[in-house]
Amino acid sequence: MKKIFSIVFLISSLCVFSQKVKSTKLSKEEIPQKELEKITEFPVYRAYELEDKNGVSSLVLCENQKSISKKDTLNTKIQASFATIENDKLQIKWKIVDILEDYIPKETTIWFWTKYCSTKDLDGDGYIDPVIVYGSKTEYGEVRRVKIITVYKNKKYAIRAIECDLDDCRSFKKDKNWNTLPQKIKTYLDQLVVKLRKEQNLLLKDG
């Protein structure tokens, strides 16, 4: 049956519960922007329909597309929203919002790194553990900031990194609550950091 990402679908899906964990990336035709006004004010970059023990939910990644050219799209703000239906009403369970920051050199765009995002059940408990990865670039096209945020039981756990050639302006930090995550999730995220270092030639470390 064709998936249609809409408020009507979300309401109807309230009655559908399954132990099966499933994640479906929706096509552009399945993402009617006008029906997502309660979730975001920005154009939808990527949307997922998720199904786990909690039922059906939606993860929407949006970028404001401040400047669009033939070569690139520049964003000044991004937003990730996770929504479910409760008591016949759309409920946003959590959001992630970030904007360009005032660094030298200047940041010119911020974007979701969907190649490294994940919508899987990482610890095998029957619930999807979203991993959101995004970064920013400078006016010279170099990666400046990288953030890896996972959401476990509706709580956010973040890795925050600033890339810099000089030791005193480079950083790599995990949230203080990091060790409360299940070991399988921590292992997955540590491996993801290694993958980012290798594939994107990033340092991702403290000075």
How does this model look, in words?
The protein is mainly beta. The chain contains 2 helices and 13 strands. The chain has helices at residues 7-12, 183-200; strands at 22-25, 44-52, 55-63, 67-68, 73-74, 77-86, 89-99, 107-112, 118-120, 129-138, 143-152, 155-162, 171-174. The strands form 3 sheets. Strands 8, 9, 10, 11, 12 and 13 form a 6-stranded antiparallel beta sheet that branches. It has a 5-stranded antiparallel beta sheet with strand order 1-2-3-6-7. It is globular and about 50 Å long. Residues 1-18 have low confidence and may be disordered.
Helix content: 10-25%
Q: Total number of β-strand segments?
A: 13
So what's the overall shape? Answer: globular
Instruction: Tally the helices.
Output: 2
Unreliable runs = 1-18
Rounded to an integer in angstroms, the radius of gyration calculated over CA atoms is 18 Å
Structural class given helices, strands, pairing? mainly beta
**Proportion of beta-strand residues:** 35-45%
Reading the helices and strands in chain order gives HEEEEEEEEEEEEEH
Distance from N terminus to C terminus (CA atoms, Å) equals: 52 Å
Major beta sheet summary: 6 strands, antiparallel
Quick check: average pLDDT?
A: 87
